[in-house]
Fold this sequence. Notes:
28% helix; D-alanyl-D-alanine carboxypeptidase/D-alanyl-D-alanine-endopeptidase; Beta-lactamase; disordered N terminus; hydrolase; five-stranded mixed β-sheet; 14 helices; D-tyrosyl-trna(Tyr) Deacylase, Chain: A; serine-type D-Ala-D-Ala carboxypeptidase activity
Amino acid sequence: MRRTSASLVAGALVAALAWASGPSSPAAALDPSAGVADLTQDINQILSDSRLTVARAGVVVKSATTGEELYASDAGKLLVPASNTKLFTSAAAVETLGLDYRFSTTVLSTGRKAGAVLTGDLVLRGTGDPTMLAEDYDALAAKIAKAGIKVVTGRLVADDTWFDSQRLGNDWSWSDETAYYAAPISALTASPDRDYDAGTVVVAVAADGGKVKVTTTPETDYLKIVNRATVGTETDVLIERQHNSRTVVITGTVADPYQEWVAVDDPTAYASSLFRTSLAEHGVKVLGQTVPGAAPAGAKELAARQSMTLGELLVPFMKLSNNIHAEILTKAMGRKVAGQGTWSAGLKVSTDYARANGVQVINMRDGSGLSRRDGFSPGSIVRLLTAVRGKPWFDTWYKSLPIAGNADRFVGGTLRSRMRGTPAANNVHAKTGSLTGVTALSGYVTSADGEPLIFSIMLNQYLSASPKDIEDKIAVRLAQFSRTATAEAVQLRAADPGTAGDLECSWLKPVHC
């Protein structure tokens, strides 16, 4: 018999409950073989799409209730995961650092205060906080002024030594250098917005009379703007920072307002420039120059700011697939475990954690998945997703995953325009992943019977436009899976108008995120 729409709704209502309490005990009432043959046939049919003829496709589906593997195709093959890498990074970070972990940014002095004069250096020290905004640096400057300091005879020392000096991942493409999703990593950084896109500035253009007006968020003179754009009948503009420089060149025509997130060349210098400007605005004059360096032993703390907790940061990190958060957390793990804020130390923590939780096929080159040398098998991803269900922090982590078809950016995240109007909507909690020729979707879904399922779908080396709809069809079919009834055919609703099919929202921030 066919399943009614009412029963599909009822199945969706129990989705949240199915995952709330972590691991489930095997249910004696379930017939292990019922419905599996139909599911296998349907997934095979979906994967027979001609776009995958020359591609590689790995899919694994497992019942979290019985432990049964419901479907497997190339389960052990090493595939490029893209942002599915963040599943491993985030889980290792929560386990290693804890949900209550906070980044700190402090201001210290190396000299003595006599009246309104501080004789010595002022030190700005960071530990990688990606949530620092210009207003937070301003608040630190206000505290220095409130302490009665008007003149600093020494230098402003920017201490980013909590991490090493390697700013970019070994395998990152040079052509991504100025892109916000590949911004350089530093222990001192700043974000322009509450998506916390650390190490970037928003550059906006608008037609203002007969000229193109350029503004930045935050307001800063750190970037050198070369505006060659003209007012036109349409907006066709390029905003691009030149290689290894602070110069942003703007060309093209502007009719309607447009903005672009631009990665800075040196996040430490950028953050310290924001702080120095705020000091001046609060009447604090630093006589010396801004220099990089480490706070000496015995430096006295004058002001401090603590970030939100890691548990809270998981939301913008995972929902919006923030690459910079992943890399900062990777180095933070290395710093805690090995005393080294490096990629190599942090990746060892993530890899060791994955292997301790049953993952066998793994190659981690960064924390975000931006590297094309990252490699996981779909079977390994499912093993990780199974293992973390037993962790005390699972509920918080699970809620941070994007939720299919939920239009709220901080709920649906990178899945907000996908699978709307289907049994997968507000049911599938999963991490997306996108690179050219790579797409992945891995996570959790509750079946039509209320049975919790774990899945990983990895599609690599296709030459067509992105086959994300294939992922969606499989996820919807899993939401329909029943051991007692036949699934209905469901027509997928198209994504929001204007959403590019090749890339997830996190790669297209100015328009879609």
